[in-house]
Amino acid sequence: MNEIETIQSKMEQAIRLLESRFLEREELIRLLLLGLMSRENVLLIGPPGTAKSQLARAVSQLFGSGRWFDYLLTRFTTPDEMFGPVSLQQLKQDQYVRQTDGYLPSSDFAFLDEIFKANSAILNALLSILNERVFFNGREKESSPLVFLMAASNELPEENDQLTALYDRFLIRYEVGFLKHMSSYEQMFQLPSDPLPSLLTLRDVEAIRQASDKVTIPESLIYMLYQLKTGMEAKEFALSDRRWRKIGQVWKTSAALNGRDTVNVWDTVYTPHMLWDFPEDLNVLTELFQQCFQEALKQESERELPLHTYDQTAKQWLSMEDELHSFQFKKEVGAKMSKEAQEETRDKLERCRTELEETARLLRGKLVQWQQREKDLPGYIRNQNFLIRHTDTFAVKYTRLRIQGERILQTLQGLYRTLFDREIPGVHYDYTL
User: Fold this and answer.
1) Are 58 and 196 within 8 A, CB to CB?
2) DSSP conformation class of 195
């Protein structure tokens, strides 16, 4: 087992442990770990009592060796509480320097509750820490080791330029609600409370970062990203270039976690949680993303099920159907035609017969193989990205591709039947599956 496989195994164990303590948070848990490994900040929006802070602390326990900072912000929180007190010794030498050890600038992981209640003195310092991982300590610019910052708020920020800039630093956003299912309430009173084991290390995060630097995004997925951007702008949604670039980096991290050096379409599934500014927009943006996802999946599957090629063949001969059918009719009734026209159309008809037969046989064979894959699509999808939870939802998208292929096959068979008054030899296919 190589290093990436070991990290993947540890993450799967961490997911199981977190799921046993935090009910109905399966997607959020995976998103948090993906954000952590991507070194991206995560913001949770939701009412008090939805285990936001508890989940943050549980994630930090998984990294036993990391330094942890946890604070509840109010309008009266001072910079000393966040960034450390001013050094009196340095002050005597006319140097304004903070002692940051044990405070946010020196932490590996952090949780800030009610982050939008921070005052302007704190906000200015937070912006550089969140984005560049830099803290301006007096005249010095110090690098912050911060790997992951998770913040929570009961409400979204008000119209304020500084708060808007802070909000933009959180690539991943998630709305957390109360438990909904009766089964969750039955389990809620028997949840484990013992400390979580230290499964992951800072070295694991660094290993994934190095691996993700070598990952490439294929042109088809860059086009998907551009399609998504264009579709959002058409609906008057806008994202900064910084956020689009970070989305691509999360895709690369997902590919690295799954042991690949190229991003595939399954690395993009959590993108909707990186697009919205208001929770109520999530459904609209998810629908828009799914349209782009389906098209990208179709293009990525062209190697195994080249529907575009088969469809082009069908359309090419469909456009000549009237001409070829007319020739067949004239032959039957003995209508006069020039020798040249007869030979030309006869050659075209023979080419049509050959191409329809070959294309239909190839397509039929691909569809049969596709049906075999569909028998364990959830397993196949999970092999593509182990962080995907509801694989059955995505399995439907493969079924749609098969249905498109079956429609093309029906078109080929129908055209052949019309022109040659028989079925294509050796192309029996069961459409009832």
Assistant:
1) yes
2) P
pLDDT tier for residue 433 given thresholds of 50, 70 and 90: low
- By three-state DSSP, how is residue 387 classified? coil
pLDDT digits (tens, 9 = 90+) for 4-45: 999 999 999 999 999 999 999 999 999 999 999 999 999 999
Shortest CA distance to 169 belongs to which of 43, 53, 76?
43
Query: From the CA atom positions of the chain, what is the Rg in Å?
Result: 29
- Number of structural domains the chain divides into: 2
Write down the pTM of the prediction. 0.85
List Cα–Cα distances, 377 to 254, 371, 380, 433, in angstroms.
Answer: 20, 10, 5, 15
Q: What domain range includes position 309?
A: 304-420
User: What contacts 5, CB < 8 A, 6 or more positions away?
Assistant: 259
The answer to whether residue 274 is domain-embedded is: no
State the Cα–Cα distance between residues 232 and 289, nearest whole angstrom: 9
In angstroms, the Cα distances linking 351 to 174, 289, 348, 419 are: 57, 41, 5, 12
270 in a domain, yes or no?
no
pLDDT digits (tens, 9 = 90+) for 222-255: 999 999 999 999 999 999 898 999 999 999 999 9
Residues 6+ apart with CB under 8 A from 402: 305, 367, 370, 371, 374
- Which CATH number fits the domain that encloses residue 31? 3.40.50.300
CA distance 316 to 321: 9
Cα 57 from Cα 112, distance rounded (Å) = 11
Report the alpha-carbon distance of residue 331 to residue 345 in Å, rounded: 11
Report in angstroms the alpha-carbon separations of 281 from 54, 165, 194, 274: 27, 20, 38, 12
| Domain contains 275 | no
- Backbone dihedral region of 322: left (phi > 0), alpha (psi from -120 to 50 degrees) or beta? alpha
86 forms beta bridges with 98
CA neighbor of 305 nearest in space, from 263, 364, 264, 262:
364
